[in-house]
C-alpha cells in the first residue's frame, strides 16, 4: 500500500503523493503540488507551490487496479492549490492537459528498536506488485533474513509479519526513516 505517485501534466511533474500506511485501510499522505514556468527554449523549470498532509481511510483495497482507481479519485477530490502572489493560474499548466499517473520504485528504511536493533530495507516496485524486505540485525548475523510480498501489503504489516515469522518477535517496534 505504501507508495510514491507522480502526477504528470503533459509529461511535466505536477504533483507528488507519498503514502504511508499504519494499517491496510488507514494512513497518511503528503501531497506536493508543483508549478512551472515556460521559458524560451522549451525548458520548463518546476518548483513546489504547496506541500500538505492528508489522512487516507478507505475499505480494504485488494488489487493494484483498485489502488490506482482510489488514487485517481483521491487526487481529483483535492482542493485547487493556492496560486502564489504575482503569478497566474498558468503556473499550474493547461487545464486540459493530458494527466498521467506514474508510480515510482521506492527504497524504504525502517529501524527495529525493540527488542533489539536492526535495519529493515524494503525495496518496492508498486506497478510490478513486488516488495522485498532485507533485514540486517545489529545483534547477530543469525537474525539477518529476507521476505517478499506483493505491493498491496502495507509496510508496517510486512515488517511485523517478518518479525513474527522469521525472528519470533512480538510485538516489534519499527520506526520509518526519512518520513516527515
How is this fold's topology laid out?
Elements: E1 3-9, E2 12-21, E3 26-36, E4 46-57, H1 64-76, E5 99-104, E6 106-114, E7 118-125, E8 130-137, E9 145-149, H2 155-166, E10 173-176
Antiparallel strand pairs: 1-2, 1-5, 2-3, 3-4, 6-7, 6-10, 7-8, 8-9
Quick synopsis:
The chain has about 180 residues and is mostly beta strands. The protein has helices spanning about 65-75, 155-165, and strands spanning about 5-10, 10-20, 25-35, 45-55, 100-105, 105-115, 120-125, 130-135, 145-150, 175.
Keywords:
180 residues; mainly beta; 2 domains; five-stranded antiparallel β-sheet; 44% strand
Tell me what the structure shows:
With 180 residues, this protein is mostly beta strands. It has two helices and ten strands; from the N terminus they run ββββαβββββαβ. The strands form two sheets. Strands 4-3-2-1-5 form a five-stranded antiparallel sheet, with no helix packed on it. A five-stranded antiparallel sheet has the order 9-8-7-6-10, covered by helices on one side. The radius of gyration is 19 Å and the shape is elongated.
Amino acid at each position: 500500500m505504501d507508495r510514491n505517485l507522480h502526477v504528470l501534466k503533459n509529461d511535466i511533474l505536477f504533483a507528488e503523493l507519498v503514502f504511508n500506511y499504519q494499517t491496510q485501510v488507514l494512513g497518511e499522505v503528503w501531497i506536493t503540488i508543483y508549478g512551472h514556468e515556460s521559458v524560451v527554449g522549451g525548458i520548463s523549470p518546476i518548483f513546489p507551490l504547496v506541500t500538505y498532509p492528508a489522512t487516507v481511510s478507505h475499505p480494504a483495497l485488494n488489487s493494484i487496479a483498485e489502488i490506482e482507481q482510489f488514487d485517481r479519485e483521491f487526487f481529483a477530490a483535492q482542493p485547487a492549490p493556492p496560486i502564489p502572489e504575482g503569478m497566474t493560474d498558468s503556473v499550474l499548466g493547461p487545464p486540459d492537459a493530458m494527466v498521467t499517473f506514474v508510480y515510482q520504485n521506492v527504497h524504504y528504511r525502517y529501524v527495529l528498536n525493540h527488542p533489539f536493533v536492526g535495519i529493515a530495507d524494503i525495496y518496492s516496485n508498486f506497478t510490478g506488485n513486488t516488495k522485498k524486505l532485507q533485514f540486517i540485525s545489529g545483534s547477530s548475523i543469525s537474525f539477518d533474513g529476507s521476505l517478499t510480498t506483493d505491493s498491496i501489503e502495507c509496510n508496517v504489516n510486512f515488517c511485523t509479519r517478518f518479525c513474527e515469522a522469521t525472528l519470533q518477535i512480538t510485538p516489534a517496534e519499527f520506526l520509518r526513516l526519512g518520513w516527515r
